[in-house]
Structure formats: C-alpha cells, structure tokens
Amino acid sequence: MGGRKVDLSPYPAVVGRLTRNISFLVNVQKTSGATSVEVQLFDVTDAVQVTSTNLTHSANNDLTELSSGSLTVGSSSGNLRSDAPKVYEVNVRMNGGGPSDQVFVANARLLVTYT
Questions:
Q1: What is the CATH number of the domain that holds 88?
Q2: Rounded distance between C-alpha atoms, residue 88 and residue 5, angstroms
Q3: Residue 94: which residues within 8 A CB-CB, separation 6 or more?
Q4: DSSP per residue over 62-95, as a string?
Q5: How far apart are CA 61 and CA 28, in angstroms?
Q6: In Å, how far are 30, 37, 78 from 72, measured between CA atoms?
Q7: Quick one: which of 9, 14, 20, 64 is 20 to 30 A from 81 by CA?
Q8: CA 87/CA 67 separation, integer angstroms
Q9: How far from 41 is each of 38, 71, 105, 114, CA to CA, in Å?
C-alpha cells in the first residue's frame, strides 16, 4: 500500500520521567463476502515484518480501527528500528470472498505517545 521513511531520532526513548510508546493503528473495512482482512507493518529496508503488527479484522463490514499495542523499538530485526531511518509499508490481505469483494484501508499510522 505504499512506503514511507520513518526516522525515530526526533522521538527519544525517555523525556524526563516520560517513556516513549509507539503503536501501529489502522482503519480497515471489508465487504460482507470477505471472510477477514489482515494488515501488517513491513520493514522494506530490511525485508522483515515488524513484530506484533499482524492485525486481523473479521467481525463485519463497518470501518474499524485496529491497534497493535506498544511496539518494541530497537536495532534488532523485527523491531521498529531506532538505529537508522527505515522505509516501512502497510501490507493488506483479503481472505475469502469472491471477485467483487474488497478490503479498504482508510488510514494507517504510527502513534507516538509519552507516559
């Protein structure tokens, strides 16, 4: 679904007493014939899926927000990389359904918060 370079250097791991948390959020919708939609964040630079971002939606055909929860940030494969800017893309897969069924991604983003 396209790629975007992400540089985490402006977001330090700790600011004073606050700790950085980053989560992957995506708004998805599917037609009723599709069984489910799977979405994941993929590190294109290192050719690896970002761990804990494989999200699945199967309940109905309303627009739904899915969240990964807090991601691991670091320099290891599968982490959201903090050692250098990396290119990430959102991968989408429809399961089931017929030729007229579709899945939609209305928005996908990384949410950076400090708590």
A1: 2.60.120
A2: 6
A3: 30, 34, 36, 37, 101, 102, 103
A4: S-EEEEEEEPPEESSTTSEE-SS-EEEEEEEEEE
A5: 9
A6: 29, 24, 8
A7: 64
A8: 20
A9: 11, 11, 13, 21
Alpha-carbon span 90 to 40, nearest angstrom: 6
Tally of structural domains, the chain: 1
- For residue 107, list its beta bridge partners: 27
Q: What are the pLDDT digits (tens) for 29-88? A: 999 899 999 999 999 999 999 999 999 999 877 899 999 999 999 999 999 999 999 999
Q: Which two tokens stand for residue 95?
A: 């399961």
Domain hosting 22: range is 3-114
Residue located via tokens 């979405």:
39
